[in-house]
Amino acid sequence: MALLELDKVTKDFGAIRALDEVSFRIEPGQVVGLMGDNGAGKSTLVKIMSGIYQPTAGELRFGGERAHIHSPGEARRLGIETVYQDLALADNLTAAGNIFLGRELKKNFGPLRILDHKAMNARAVELFAELKSETRAGDFVRQMSGGQRQAVAIARTRLSDAKMILMDEPTAAISVRQVAEVLNLIRRLKDAGIAVILISHRMPDVFSVCERVIVMRRGSKVADKAIASSSPEEVTALITGALEAA
């Protein structure tokens, strides 16, 4: 059974059609690249899957059941997490503090409920170990590299037992070594049976970690192919319109 299915999903903003009958399915543990030029519809698609927008027409099914995702909170309860390009991390907090931000663990202290920093740090250490990341729970985010920041954002998604993670340009504006770290984190998620949709402009990243690539152009899906049966040249032609569809 597919984890997520989109069936003829359409999104209109007034007279502008941002998505036009987009259909695809994602299996558990699959890593799928989502590519397209600016304005191709990638962001709108991600916002529908994450509950920020609702489709004008078409439907989503998650785990075989029709899904009405009206907010990011509803998406999270289903098991869909999103790591946005800006990561939404607080520089003045530690890695553990960011992971548990808004979901803090507390303990009783007499009549009071206080933050359980020890338990949060211990769980953060476990999460980084699961991801095989060298990021340290007690380090402040403001001191971290781009790759370490991505590790914190990904570890945060693991608190809610995510089944699918939408990753928006996770390797933009970071060094080559940090890119390798992030791609390894994506492989760890796959090994854990978590599906990943990787939104990226970086062809080498998509061809390195993804099993399939979905190409969008002007709001339509123009290709959905196995990586093994495509090439960077073909995907580039699909993105630019030199090739109509594949």
Automatic annotation (TrEMBL):
Keywords: ATP-binding, Nucleotide-binding
CDD domains: ABC_Carb_Monos_I
InterPro entries in the cross-refs: AAA+_ATPase, ABC_carbohydrate_import_ATPase, ABC_transporter-like_ATP-bd, P-loop_NTPase
Top-rank taxon, per record: Bacteria
Secretion signal, residue range per the UniProt entry: none
Molecular function GO labels: ATP binding
Keyword Transmembrane helix part of the UniProt annotation: no
Transmembrane domains' residue ranges: none
ABC transporter domain segment(s): 4-243
Pfam families in the record: ABC_tran
Name the UniProt record assigns to this protein: ATP-binding cassette domain-containing protein
Species, as recorded: Rhizobium alvei
